[in-house]
Amino acid sequence: MMRFLPFCLFFFLSIHVSAQVTFSGSIQSDMMLPQNDDKIGAEKKEDFLTNTYIDLRAQHKYFEAGARLEYMEHPLPGFENDFKGWGVPHFYVKGKLEKAELTLGTFYEQFGSGFILRTYEERSLGIDNSLLGGRLVVKPVKGVTLKALGGKQRRYWEWNKAFISGADAELSLDEWIPSMQQHDTRLSFGFSWVNKHENPDEDVTTTRKFPLPNGYTLSTMKVVQPRYVNAWDARVNLNHGAWNVLAEYAQKTADPSYDNGYIYRKGNTAMLSTSYSKKGLSVLVQAKRSENMASRSQRKMKLTSSFINHLPAFTQDHTYALAALYPYATQLADGEWAYQTEVGYNFKRKTALGGKYGMNLKVNYSYVRAIDRQWEGGLNPVSLSNSNMQLAGTEGYHSKFFKWGDATYYQDLNVQLSRKFSKAFKLNLMYMNQRYNKTVIEGEGGMIHSDIYVADGKYQFAPKTTLRAEAQYLCTRQDQGDWAFGLLELSLVPHWMFTVSDMWNCGGAETHYYQSSVTFNTGAHRLQLGYGRTRAGYNCSGGVCRWIPASKGFTLSYNYNF
């Protein structure tokens, strides 16, 4: 257990005697009184549950220090198996000079787009994969940023034994060439390297067939794992006027692990992203190919634990309840071809389509496909247990870069229309067509094809009184059938908000997932009291997902920033 609270309190009391120090922090406490509900499968295991975080930070011209207390001795549903406990897992001291910055303790870092290194905190997903060690950032000359770091990665209340080290260099060429700035042009180059030192697992074996004159014999052999795994990343970013182009490529050496079935194939990711934006028009086009890029600080881990890197999903993160019912999770180990394009256009005011107040139209299309994989010996394992037996210790498969595989993982076409009809009334409409390969993403379930319709209207009765309503419908012949969702939200600025909603599985189990809440805001304080049911399912953000079980009960959330 990482209970360093006495040390942290002493540290902050020591800082308090110094002059010119500013203090800040935050408190977040999410609490629940759970109830049993056989209808949705909610199980009451304890009378009171809470996830509570207290962050403290002291800042000075030449240094900064911080710590976070986490109390989850009785954690919320979905966190029981991992985060149960309490302690101070996040603490750091940072020294700052004009051209250098040194951090000791725990810290978060990302190189480039995160293909080979991204450590971050996402509380809703139960992710905190910070590094415990040191990081040095130096800016020796204008336009150059150098980073070097090393440490061990957090895994819930412990740190994995592998040691992670790395370096990153960023060069902004436009800061050296004044004429580029005069022509609104910015050009930057980046290069990163990451090394993982991890001792081999002693219990990983594979079984092979060896021919004999009268048949064959089976032999069990140990899978030899490398102590060092290296990864590198190179990128270039060009911005000129309304245009922006980012190209990035990453590669890592063989890293036999649970994710890839202990094969020795190298991993790589290539990405190209182009965007155009000016008043009234925006365009985004992206493509990414990745294979065998699951990189963890403990190679035998699974689920969301111990990832060193992150690959963006290239799919839209939806906020509407039914549009987010089947979210996509990036297939790090298997690899994927991912494409996304989005066009947004503002119709001008006082035109035939724009009307009196103007109108916004946005079209987004995402498509994710399997990469081509030709398995060694003609084998095509359908599970990791099979691949461990049949392919462990080999390269596993061969793949042609530009060739697709047979399976579609995900497809999403959505059209959003936003228009203000009067000073008081605004309406948002959305249609979404989705294909979701539940077998690939969740393990079983086949391909789910759904159509989703959303109407979201907001009416302002008075300067401080607004009513918002949502009506959503999802229709599908697969999985649990059709869903309907309704919401009413009354805002009384600046203090109160009242919300009621219901998500109804009208085409399947006829189950209602009702919710109600009252929110009160005053100054830096926010308090929310709620009651209702929560459906079991995946909670996702940026292609990273976590399973949350069904729950029911009273909830209370408190947030304070100071």
Quick summary:
It is built from five helices and 33 strands. The protein has helices at 5-16, 80-83, 178-182, 384-390, 438-442, and strands at residues 22-34, 49-59, 63-72, 85-96, 100-107, 121-122, 127-128, 131-138, 144-155, 158-159, 163-172, 185-197, 205-212, 215-222, 228-240, 243-252, 267-278, 281-291, 336-347, 359-371, 374-375, 397-398, 404-420, 425-437, 447-462, 465-476, 483-492, 496-504, 512-522, 525-534, 537-541, 544-548, 551-561. The strands form five sheets. The chain has a 24-stranded antiparallel β-barrel. It has a two-stranded antiparallel sheet with strand order 6-7.
Overall geometric form? globular
Tell me how many strands there are: 33
The percent range for helix content is under 10%
Any idea what the radius of gyration is? 26 Å
- The assembly state of the depicted protein chains is single chain
Helix segment tally: 5
Give the biggest sheet.
24 strands, antiparallel, barrel
Strand fraction:
over 45%
Mean pLDDT: 90
Termini separation: 28 Å
Unreliable residue runs:
383-389
Going by helix content, strand content and strand pairing, the class is mainly beta
List the SSEs and their pairings.
Layout: H1 5-16, E1 22-34, E2 49-59, E3 63-72, H2 80-83, E4 85-96, E5 100-107, E6 121-122, E7 127-128, E8 131-138, E9 144-155, E10 158-159, E11 163-172, H3 178-182, E12 185-197, E13 205-212, E14 215-222, E15 228-240, E16 243-252, E17 267-278, E18 281-291, E19 336-347, E20 359-371, E21 374-375, H4 384-390, E22 397-398, E23 404-420, E24 425-437, H5 438-442, E25 447-462, E26 465-476, E27 483-492, E28 496-504, E29 512-522, E30 525-534, E31 537-541, E32 544-548, E33 551-561
Antiparallel strand pairs: 1-2, 1-33, 2-3, 3-4, 4-5, 5-8, 6-7, 8-9, 9-10, 9-11, 11-12, 12-15, 13-14, 15-16, 16-17, 17-18, 18-19, 19-20, 20-23, 21-22, 23-24, 24-25, 25-26, 26-27, 27-28, 28-29, 29-30, 30-33, 31-32
